[in-house]
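User: Teach me something about this protein's shape.
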Amino acid sequence: MTQVDFYILPDTTREARLDFACKLAETIWRKGYRLHVHTQDEDQARAFDERLWTFRDDSYVPHALSGSGHDVPVTIGWQALPEPALDAPGIEAMLNLNLAIPEWFSRFERVAEIINQHQDILTAKRDCWQTYKQRGYPVKAHKL
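Assistant: First, the predicted structure itself:
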């Protein structure tokens, strides 16, 4: 069963949420996991792709947009299903930056959600928390 982890930030800005998402993506990759970052739309995917190059001077996270044809351990996408399809071996974790839960989240061993104190994100992620719990998924909160 998919383990869901919520990371709760004290910050209110969307930028702080994305900066933490970059750090979390780097941590997940350094632990040897393949990761898919699911975004709200193409604009957010492209912005996150750029942010992974610049969030810290000494950082490197091998990544690419889904469907680019690059075999990298971190993919970023907004589509209904990441490319390559989730049935491809090796994709173990998803970092969900989308405000909603994608229908196919349960194909991953781990799902990470990031909450900060921005009202839109708080509201959406509270709903996500309730949905996961109602469906019986193990949910864990990490206050930062």
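Now, about its shape. The mean pLDDT is 91. The longest helix spans residues 14-30. If you'd like, I can walk through any region in more detail.
User: That's plenty for now, thanks!
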